[in-house]
Design the sequence.
């Protein structure tokens, strides 16, 4: 499957932390669960679903906590290079406010 995706200039990304924001719960619970998992791993890709209002509600709090604790939010962008299917993470493109 990864080879088929690569042939179509697609990159497979794996999630390290599932916020489980799809579970009916409060924004505070989602933030705490996500931060607990992040503390356990130390870093990673966090999965969130933008179709849920509770996710949008908790996002400013989560971003503030990430910044306060020294985590960096990066943008992952596909970039054509000599190395096929390269994903570049850039921390200078994201401003947390």
Sequence:
């Amino acid at each position: 499957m990864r080879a088929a995706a690569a042939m179509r200039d697609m990159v497979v990304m794996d999630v390290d932390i599932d916020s489980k924001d799809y579970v009916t719960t409060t924004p505070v619970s989602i933030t705490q669960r996500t931060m607990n998992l992040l503390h356990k791993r130390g870093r990673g890709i966090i999965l969130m679903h933008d179709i849920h209002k509770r996710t949008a509600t908790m996002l400013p709090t989560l971003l503030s906590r990430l910044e306060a604790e020294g985590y960096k939010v990066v943008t992952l962008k596909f970039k054509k290079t000599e190395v096929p299917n390269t994903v570049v993470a850039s921390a200078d493109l994201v401003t947390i406010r």
Summary: Residues 2-71 form one domain. Strands lie at 17-18, 46-47, 75-79, 86-90. The chain has three helices and four strands. The two ends are 38 Å apart (CA to CA).
